[in-house]
Amino acid sequence: MTRTNGKRKKINKVTLIVLSVVITLGLVIGGTAMWGVNKFRDLAGGMYEPLPNGQDSQSGKQNKAKANELEGFHILILGVDSRDGGAARSDTVMIATVNPHLEEIMLTSLPRDTYVAVQGRGNTKLNHAMAYGGVPLAKETVERFLGIKVDHYLTIDFNGFQDAIDVLGGVYIDVERPMRYYDPTDGTNINIRAGYQLLDGKNALDYVRYRSDAEADFGRIRRQQDFIRAVAERATTFTQVTRVIPFVESASKGVRTDIHPSNIEALVRKFFGVRGTSIHSMEIESRSYIGTDGLWYVEIKQAERNRIGRALDEFKNKKPDKALMEQNNSQKNDQESAASA
């Protein structure tokens, strides 16, 4: 049966604030003015971790790029889980395609069970690439799978984000059904009642990990998106620096990226005041099945992968309409003036 990974839809501003590059940094868009540029740069510098062997393709070219000089790029976002202290697998795999000229972002989620070819390991699940060879192998695998050049990576450690949720005071989630799961091998114990409720860090993490229902990985992807929106809504209700700063500091501890701090600062300035209509999600046609080894896999056919790769590259390189760009710049200047008033 064919399954759809997501709907082509517009996501509101809070998703921009929390997702990918701006998962912690976007919350600082307002906070930069409140507690200073130096603090922002310290956080960005602490997350900076170039890949070995010169794989940080754009850091040298754009180390000191200004916001209006940034070119479009693809970011591989990996949500990793290192609970057992061993090799971390990527439970979340997403491509964020950023077009600074359009001031738009395209999000593409790939199910962790996607059947892929991993260099030196044969055919297996997508999330195994991270366990076998870390970020470099995960990056190479996604590049070969979609036929695109991944310019940057960003990893988020789930365990570190649990602490950030506790600092935030929990997050409100409408849990659609009771969630119960126990795995004695790694100590996972999920027990969440149904209904609208305030989840602490542990239960919030269990909520985004859970996939023991009919939707499996597709349900987890949907819940992760709901969780992201809920975190942003919760975080943006706090206007006091004393509440926002600890959350951002805690969340940033679990984030690593090869995007240079100066580029992060330029991106934040570029996307200041961006509207929800600037964030899109890519629809993917896929099929779930049980392999000969008895494991669940997700198949994305070659024609669909080619379509996705072409669409992402076209979005990445698209240039804006001059008149529309001038209108957006005028609106942004008005917003910046209002924010500084």
Please tell me about this protein's structure.
- The chain is α+β, with helices and mostly antiparallel strands and 341 residues long.
- The protein has a single domain (2-169, 215-321), classed as LCP protein (Aminopeptidase, 3-Layer(aba) Sandwich).
- Helices cover 44% and strands 23% of the residues.
- Strand 3 and strand 4 form a beta hairpin.
- Helix 7 crosses helix 8, helix 7 (158-168) runs antiparallel to helix 10 and helix 8 packs antiparallel against helix 9 (216-235).
- The model is unreliable at 1-36 and 57-64 (pLDDT under 50).
Largest sheet: 6 strands, mixed
* Percentage of residues in helical conformation: 40-55%
Radius of gyration: 20 Å
N-to-C span:
55 Å
Number of separate domains? 1
CATH class category label:
Alpha Beta
CATH superfamily: LCP protein
Please give a handful of descriptors for the protein shown.
341 residues, alpha+beta, Aminopeptidase, 6-stranded mixed sheet, 13 helices, 23% strand, globular, disordered N terminus
Concise description?
With about 350 residues, the chain is of the alpha+beta class. Helices cover about 45% and strands about 25% of the residues. The protein is built from 13 helices and 15 strands.
